[in-house]
Amino acid sequence: MDRVRNLLEQIRNRLEELNKAEKKVAEVILLNPQQATRFSIAALAQAASVSEPTVNRFCRSFGVSGYPELKLQLAQSLASGAAYVSRAVEADDNPEAYTQKIFGSAIASLDSACQALDPALISKAVDLLIQARQIHFFGLGASAPVAMDALHKFFRFNLSVTAHADVLMQRMIASVAHTGELFVIISYTGRTRELVEVARIARENGASVLGVTAENSPLAKASTVSLNIPLPEDTDIYMPMTSRIIQLTVLDVLATGMTLRRGVDFQPHLRKIKESLNDSRYPVGDEFN
């Protein structure tokens, strides 16, 4: 991602490095980037309770010549879709504020993940899925529902698919794995010891492992192929929110890749599954008292 497009993310990442006065400027910009593009330098200085020279120093610290150029780059960031900055929810936030922050955080995380994913690795992951004779989806904690969602997606490909969230069952399945089986292990941090051990056991028995996890994490290193996901939220402190959204979206990407690889001849099979649900639903427009 180029410097212009990533300006707001740079400001957020460097927030704690700035001096007290420049940090005030950054906080005003991050609170409402769109409004900041409409401020004059005097208005921004007043909103941040700093001097105009402080605003100019802030601009130079981010490699821009002055406030007009900073506003231009902020506007370009907004137009690019990279401007949604993850902001922590405060105790006194009202429903409008925390709703905007949560949605903004999710959008920012998805954009960051999209930029980080390597299309060549996506292709390798789809290869593993297409070639597998049996696929096991494993996840623990917040990643466990994601593994179950994968079961609902991937059984449609006429493959033997399982999903497990019990670490003892995961370990037993890995211990009797064979060549041709694929273990898709989902872990946002990639630091869960049990999952890393399961990956190692599966590979020792000839199976392949696809990690959906953080880059350079222990799980990524233990996997045959790893789809690297950035870590925009601290899952050691906060309730996981955006992590599952990213994981689910990555699995949608893989399912789409498999559908396209199967070609048009596979469409009747998917349609048959979809149509099997028709009798289980009330027709659209039916009203009941």
Automatic annotation (TrEMBL):
Domain called HTH rpiR-type: residue spans: 5-81
Any GO molecular function: carbohydrate derivative binding
BP GO annotations: carbohydrate derivative metabolic process
Record keywords, A-Z: Coiled coil, DNA-binding, Repressor, Transcription, Transcription regulation
Keyword Repressor attached: yes
Annotated SIS domain residues: 125-264
Coiled coil segments of this chain: 1-28
Record-linked PROSITE patterns: HTH_RPIR, SIS
PANTHER family according to UniProt: GLUCOKINASE, HTH-TYPE TRANSCRIPTIONAL REGULATOR HEXR-RELATED
Function text: Involved in regulation of glucose metabolism. Transcriptional repressor of the gap-1 gene and of the edd-glk-gltR-2 and zwf-pgl-eda operons. Acts by binding directly to an inverted pseudopalindromic sequence in the promoter region.
Descriptive protein name: HTH-type transcriptional regulator HexR
Organism: Pseudomonas antarctica
